[in-house]
Amino acid sequence: MDDATQRPLRGIERRTVGALSGVLAGYAALAVAELVSAAVRPEAGPLVAVGGATIDRTPAAVKDWAIRQFGTHDKLVLQLGILAVLAVLAMALGVAATRWLRAGSLGVLCFGAVGALAALGRPDSTGFTDALPSVVGALAGAGLLYGLTGRVGRADGALADGAEEGGTGWDRRGFLVVAGAAAAASTGAAFAGRALAGSRGQRAVASRRGVVLPAAASKAAPVPRGAALRIGGISPFITPNDDFYRVDTALTVPKVDAGSWRLRIHGTGVTDELTLSFDALLRMPLVERDITLTCVSNEVGGPYAGNARWTGVRLADLLERCGVRPPSRGGPADQLVARSVDGMTLGSPVEDVMDGRDALLAVGMNGQPLPFEHGFPVRMVVPGLYGYVSACKWIEDIELTTYDAYDPYWVKRDWARRAPVKTASRIDTPKPFARPGAGTVMVAGVAWAQHRGIDKVEVRVDDGPWQEARLAAEDTADTWRQWSYAWQARKGGHTLTVRATDGTGETQTEERAPTIPDGASGWHSVVVTVD
Ligand SMILES: Nc1nc2c(c(=O)[nH]1)N[C@H]1C(S)=C(S)[C@@H](COP(=O)(O)O)O[C@H]1N2
Ligand SMILES: [Mo]
User: Fold this and answer.
1) Residue of the nearest CA to atom 13 in ligand 1?
2) Strands 439-448 and 454-461
């Protein structure tokens, strides 16, 4: 029997072939979109655009939960989730297309429209070409679905639109040929897209390799001996770049070419607008400072804190050059809004940035050019403020404005306008549910209250009295401080609790607060069993 005249497919067979067609069409659409986006703009690809739009529309509580559950893998989980949803929808469309041929293709085009609208609506969208990846991908997917499901034939005897000659039979050979060719072509397109995107990133990679950080005019004092305790399990005093926590909304890490990078400073009260190149920035006097960065999404005892030696230009100097005055000196702008190449906005108090603290436009992290993940070529770092109100990575624009006039990204999503870092302390060792032996057990960790400093750390065993911990030497008030407590541990289950007192004499509050809206509070406890 000739393949082209086989009986029409029925029931489960028809649905299986339909689902397979749908998945193939979806794969082709995404692969073609990937290739086109690599040529147009990688950030305009449908997965990145829809993923970004999803992140922006996710309620703060859910986002916070996702960061907690998946940590730095939150974005991978999101993309896998989107792919899973798309796969199910593509199967459904494919099955539908075996009954209503045109409806399936129309459905694919609708998905293309969603992707295109998401891409055009992204804050970093550069124009209508951002719609191309989704549109071209959807056309490819729709055409393929039509071509595949047109070969299924009709059980009820009606002519399938695309299969006049084969009558109403199931064109198995034709289906397999088209499906195989499409799968191969899609895979080719996906690989070509990856290769093209990779070569585009090469310019940024090369520009980073070419960076030679000039010596700082104002060096950081060496980390004092005694600031770093030699205790197993304690956070190292300086966090290596590779271990530094990463929190951002970027689905693909922006790869910015330092050669074409520019920073613009403008807005209310700016008398001399400024546009700076990376080289111009490097020619300015550089300072080197140790600053601990913490995230507002860090739970009590959580990992989103890191300490690095940053090299950069003092932001206040640049602002002065532009004629900016802080509110206390009569300046009209009280909010500095930093904007990144990926459209993120973060708002810091102009007063804080200009009050003498080492607010930096950083170009170096622990002696290296900034890693791409941490904002290459330039980011902000402001001691004493949570990252989301200060630490803009991949920065390209600074606008002076007011808190009344503008709400940046996170503020639009229920986080506080102003967010100084809350005094915090963490037990690094022993770990929760550890089983140390009886006798002397080293309890140790870090405490931070950036720009106020840490004056005291106390440890409590069960409901006993607070015992003063031994503080490591202080580096600066802008860095965290290690501490340790030699505990004479007795057999049984115990709860260890820590609290810190900052440089103003204020003791860390016991009152539990969630991370939203302005940072978690409460004491960190660890339960252990002494054997
Ligand atoms: N462009 C951009 N900058 C950003 C963010 C972001 O999502 N996008 N996240 C901020 C937040 S919430 C924090 S805590 C710090 C984290 O910096 P890191 O990833 O280098 O540790 O970056 C800040 N800068
Ligand atoms: Mo953050």
Assistant:
1) 387
2) unpaired
* 389 Cβ closer than 6 Å to some ligand 1 atom: no
Ligand nearest to the CA of 293: 1
Q: Is the CB of 249 under 6 A from ligand 1?
A: yes
DSSP state of 189: H
pLDDT value at residue 154: 58
In a domain, 46, yes or no: yes
pLDDT at position 135 is 96
Mean pLDDT confidence for 338-358? 97
pLDDT tens for each residue of 106-124: 999 999 999 999 999 998 8
Rounded alpha-carbon distances, angstroms, from residue 124 to 61, 338, 340? 25, 14, 9
| 151 and 192 together in one domain | yes
CA nearest neighbour of 379 among 399, 396, 401: 396
523 lines ligand 1 (CB under 6 A): no
* CA-nearest residue, atom 20 of ligand 1: 374
Clarify whether residues 408 and 428 are in a common domain. Answer: no
Query: Region 501-518: what's the mean pLDDT?
Result: 97
Q: Total structural domains in the chain?
A: 3
Residue 373: how many other CB atoms lie within 10 Å: 16
Q: Which of 39-53, 87-101, 283-297 has the highest mean pLDDT?
A: 283-297
Can you tell me the distance from the alpha carbon of 68 to that of 71, in angstroms, rounded to the nearest whole number?
5
Same domain membership, residue 462 and residue 435:
yes
Nearest 10 degrees: Cα torsion 243, 245, 250, 256: -50
**What's the chain's Rg over C-alpha atoms?**
29
> Is there an atom of ligand 1 within 6 Å of 395 CB?
no
Q: Does some domain include residue 234?
A: no
pTM across the whole model: 0.86
Is pLDDT above 50 for 158? no
In this prediction, residue 125 carries a pLDDT of 87
